[in-house]
Amino acid sequence: MEDTTRLNVSKLGTKKYWDDFYALERENFSKNPEDTGECWFDDNGAEERMVEFLVDNDGELRISTQSKMIDLGTGNGHLLFELCENDFDGPMVGVDYSEESVQFASHISKAKGYDTNTSFMAADIFDSSWSPGKFDIVLDKGTLDAIALSGKKFANDKTVIDVYSTVIEKLLESGGIFLITSCNFTEQELINIVQTDRLKVWKRINYPVYEFGGVKGTTICSVAFVKQ
Ligand SMILES: C[S@@+](CC[C@H](N)C(=O)[O-])C[C@H]1O[C@@H](n2cnc3c(N)ncnc32)[C@H](O)[C@@H]1O
């Protein structure tokens, strides 16, 4: 069967692209404090649906308003701030390899008063010496999509796609949840990338289905995995 999970290398897969992107967003925020930057997949209501998913599943497995969470490739940190707005007040960490993103998210957090339970750190999630501890919930909104465009390779010619699930396993407590949203991968491709003996599909978020020329599909998907 054809491997459809290989993507082309693009500037969206480079740290420089994201440093420049968040430097500009920081500048915009300094001029207008209401401008907290781009909210990825806003058109699809992805952030809203991810938060709603966690609200609806409060009490299941390790999901609670006190859950310890980490957002991978957090960008402007908006997903974590939205969780704060929905009464999640456990410790939340946003990690991003762009220091500009970390400074931007930290600045917003402080300015808007979310800094009692959110914190931000600069790290490459593939750095083997990065060890932030274990979490009840790991989040990814659009980050695997960007990572897949990096063309980065590891030992034995392994790609970021090959090693991504080991990063998730390292970060999750047993019974913890990994909730990911992608617009570059289909639901089945996401499952092929993430699912392992220890990470199993738990639930999915439903999005409106479009139909064109007799073909049905969605432009975005979110899947929740549970660590065994
Ligand atoms: C498409 S943006 C999504 C940002 C945010 N999750 C959102 O929904 O607005 C991808 C993010 O992943 C970050 N990123 C890419 N590769 C990374 C890596 N290896 N480690 C940490 N962050 C990374 C980028 O700096 C960028 O902020």
From TrEMBL:
Localization, UniProt: Cytoplasm
Positions of transmembrane segments:
none
CDD domains attached to this UniProt entry:
AdoMet_MTases
- Has UniProt tagged this entry with the keyword ATP-binding? no
Could you cite one Gene Ontology molecular function of this protein?
protein-lysine N-methyltransferase activity
| Single GO cellular component term | cytoplasm
Instruction: Cite the Pfam families for this sequence.
Output: Methyltransf_31
Checking InterPro entries in the record gives: Efm4/METTL10, Methyltranfer_dom, SAM-dependent_MTases_sf
Q: Which Gene3D superfamilies match?
A: Vaccinia Virus protein VP39
Would you kindly state one Gene Ontology biological process term found in this protein's UniProt entry? vesicle-mediated transport
| Entry-linked SUPFAM superfamilies | S-adenosyl-L-methionine-dependent methyltransferases
Start and end residues of each Methyltransferase domain: 66-212
| Enzyme class, broadest EC rank | transferase
Q: Which UniProt keywords apply?
A: Cytoplasm, Methyltransferase, S-adenosyl-L-methionine, Transferase, Transport
UniProt EC number: 2.1.1.-
Question: Could you say which protein family the record assigns here?
Answer: Belongs to the class I-like SAM-binding methyltransferase superfamily. EFM4 family.
**According to its UniProt entry, what is the function of this protein?**
S-adenosyl-L-methionine-dependent protein-lysine N-methyltransferase that mono- and dimethylates elongation factor 1-alpha at 'Lys-316'. May play a role in intracellular transport.
- The name on file for this protein is Protein-lysine N-methyltransferase EFM4
Q: Which organism is this protein's natural source?
A: Torulaspora delbrueckii
